[in-house]
Amino acid sequence: MHRILELYSGIGGMHCAWKESQLDGEVVLAVDINTVANEVYTHNFPETCLSNRNIQSFTSKEIEKLNVNTVLMSPPCQPFTRNGKYLDVNDPRTDSFTYLIQLLCELNNIEYILMENVKGFECSTVRNLFIDSLKACGFSYQEFLLCPTKVGVPNSRLRYYCIARRSVSEWHFKRKEDIITSLPCDYGLPNMLEEILQKEVPDKYLLNEKMLKRANVLDICYKHSRRSCCFTKSYTHYLDGTGSVYTNSNEDHVEKCYKVANTFDVGSEKFIELF
Q1: What positions constitute the catalytic site (predicted)?
Q2: SS3 (DSSP) at 75
Q3: What residue segments make up the domains of the chain, in order of their start?
Q4: 223: which residues sit within 8 A by CB, 6+ positions away?
């Protein structure tokens, strides 16, 4: 049975994924310093012990006392994002993760690790430190760059994953020295959005006039769409490149609206009325 330490737990994405996997195990402790995320996590998983604490304050002895054998973690991605400054190991937001890397060989009870981050991490100094530590501590590992569309989810969100374990038993797939970019099984086409979205949506989620003024930059998805763009932290604050929007209208209707709207000044009252 997996006894799990969930680090950088956020709102509980890793916890949710673990439950979906139906693997045997429980999250013994979740850790995050973001108080807002912790409120959401507690709402999602009220039965799980959650610590609002800096990871660098944990000692190896404390972690051993938890009697955990599995670590799930999503360290801060900002130091490695393609649109950021890419400060890598020089970004202080990597400090807690590099601390864990240094601590890893002292954690003899840890048998399994799953780590997630953004594309860009795979060519970072921090990644090299992490992999070197895994090797030194006797872990075998495999790295991946995978998108949710590979497993039937209609959203483009390319991410780095690393799974590692101390077990000497055979893996259930052929490992490679290089990063794996496709799964051994085919999940077919992603679901259509209408198959997974709420049927009724409150009016508060409709686009307001301020957003409609920039309707020309919207990435619009429809009922039968099998894709959507990656959602970022700036979603709802900025429109261009922060994520898709959804409409119940069909594509022909939307196309006609745009055709007429663009005969008016962009952002004008008549332009907005058409949406």
Answers
A1: 77
A2: coil
A3: 2-165, 193-273
A4: 192, 193, 194, 248, 250
- Model confidence pLDDT, tens digit, residues 80-106: 998 788 999 999 999 999 999 999 999
φ and ψ of 99, to 5 deg: -65, -45
Strand partners, 142: 163
Q: Is 259 exposed, middle or buried (0-12, 13-18, 19+ CB in 10 A)?
A: exposed
The residue-averaged pLDDT of 217-241 equals 92
Q: Which residues are catalytic?
A: 77
Q: Taking a C-beta distance cutoff of 8 angstroms, is the pair 212, 272 a contact?
A: yes
Three-state secondary structure readout of 3-72: EEEEECCCCCHHHHHHHHHCCCEEEEEEECCCHHHHHHHHHHCCCCCEECCCHHHCCHHHHHHCCCCEEE
CATH number for the region 193-273 comes to 3.90.120.10
Cα–Cα dist 6/4, whole Å: 6
Half-sphere exposure of 261 (CA within 13 A, CB side): 20
Q: Residue 135: phi, psi to the nearest 5?
A: -65, -45
Helix, strand, or coil (residue 175): coil
* Percent of the chain surpassing pLDDT 90: 82
Q: What is the pLDDT of residues 57-71, one digit of tens each?
A: 999 999 999 999 999
pLDDT for residue 168 is more than 80 = no
Residue 57: the pLDDT is: 98
* Threshold 0.85, pTM exceeds: yes
77 Cβ contact partners less than 8 Å away, ≥ 6 residues apart: 117, 118, 121
Report whether 242 contacts 205 (CB < 8 A).
no
